[in-house]
């Protein structure tokens, strides 16, 4: 049966992140994707001035409660950017409403990058997000988010395996079976991700070549492809490589085109290949 995902993120109308990335990627993977938009912004908050912001907090629970009357269930619930303690609390309630033994709860604790909280968050937000992380099966922070969540010092790379594994292990203490850390590199010119499985206590890495520059929305692209791969039956190690390679290709296309890095990355031209590998892996 076709798998169904509930994706709970904002809609940033321009700038390719959150739902405008998650929805096409999961759909290309072959997964029915229901959405709960938490807010509508004219752009994301990463570098644009004067963006509009319509808060949809009051709609979040009514949407989930209406769905409950339809007797639908989800194979995965996937959350990203959440804007307030109230939203964290509602999403936590939605996990409780829809969690079944086989439901995969994926939390990308979107909060910051490059050692800093995004300007839209107050200092105490990571504490609230840490509470939500306790309900996740899979956590997908970047290094900044992991350091904020486990109250470790944020370091600039290149990293040591000790630092990376310390973050992974401390994140796993929230209770997730798997923690995936993005923005990992051990030498200049490299970039990728690490995944820790708390059941077998093993860490796997997927590293590639770094393209110069910082590109917006790449964390959302990465997490969405990772989930798509896992739903398609890939092992964590395979899904990690799929997500690292897909994101790297999207960044390369964007770099070659010389696009403004606030506009997000060209992931669209990778969707056809993604659809093929997911459908081959599902063997349908
Ligand atoms: O890509 C993460 C993200 C999602 N949504 C909004 C954002 C950001 C990062 O800045 O501002 C609204």
Describe this structure in words.
With 284 residues, the chain is an alpha/beta fold. It has a single domain, classed as 3-Layer(aba) Sandwich (UDP-N-acetylmuramoyl-L-alanine:D-glutamate ligase), CATH 3.40.1190.20. The chain is built from 9 helices and 11 strands. The chain has helices at 19-28, 57-69, 85-98, 125-133, 143-150, 161-172, 218-231, 236-257, 271-282; strands at residues 4-14, 32-43, 53-55, 76-79, 104-107, 112-113, 116-117, 138-139, 178-184, 190-197, 202-209. A 9-stranded mixed sheet has the order 3-2-1-4-5-8-9-10-11, sandwiched between helices. Strands 6-7 form a two-stranded antiparallel sheet. A hairpin with a 2-residue loop joins strand 6 (112-113) and strand 7. Helix 4 crosses helix 5. The radius of gyration is 17 Å and the shape is globular. It starts with a strand and ends with a helix. The relative contact order is 0.14. The mean pLDDT is 97. It binds 3-hydroxy-5-(hydroxymethyl)-2-methylisonicotinaldehyde.
């Amino acid at each position: 049966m076709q798998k169904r995902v509930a994706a709970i993120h904002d809609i940033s109308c321009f700038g390719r992140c959150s739902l405008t990335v998650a929805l096409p990627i999961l759909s290309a993977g072959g997964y029915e994707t229901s959405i709960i938009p938490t807010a509508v912004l004219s752009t994301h908050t990463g570098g644009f001035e004067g963006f509009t912001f319509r808060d949809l907090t009051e709609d979040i629970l009514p949407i989930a409660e209406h769905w409950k009357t339809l007797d639908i269930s989800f194979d995965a619930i996937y959350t990203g950017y959440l804007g307030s303690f109230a939203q964290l609390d509602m999403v936590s309630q939605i996990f409780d409403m829809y969690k079944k033994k086989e439901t995969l709860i994926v939390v990308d604790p979107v909060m910051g990058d490059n050692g800093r909280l995004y300007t839209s968050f107050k200092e105490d937000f990571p504490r609230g997000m840490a509470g939500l992380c306790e309900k996740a099966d899979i956590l997908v922070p970047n290094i900044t988010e992991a350091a904020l969540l486990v109250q470790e010092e944020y370091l600039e790379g290149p990293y040591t395996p000790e630092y990376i594994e310390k973050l992974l292990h401390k994140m796993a203490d929230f209770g997730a079976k798997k923690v995936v850390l993005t923005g990992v590199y051990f030498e200049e010119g490299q970039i990728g991700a690490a995944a820790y499985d708390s059941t077998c206590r093993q860490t796997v890495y997927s590293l590639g070549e770094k393209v110069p520059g910082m590109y917006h929305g790449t964390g959302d692209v990465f997490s969405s492809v990772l989930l798509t791969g896992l739903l398609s039956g890939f092992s964590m190690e395979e899904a990690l490589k799929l997500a690292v390679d897909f994101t790297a290709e999207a960044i390369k296309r964007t770099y070659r085109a010389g696009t403004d890095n606030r506009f997000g990355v060209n992931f669209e031209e990778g969707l056809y290949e993604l659809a093929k590998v997911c459908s081959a892996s599902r063997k349908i």
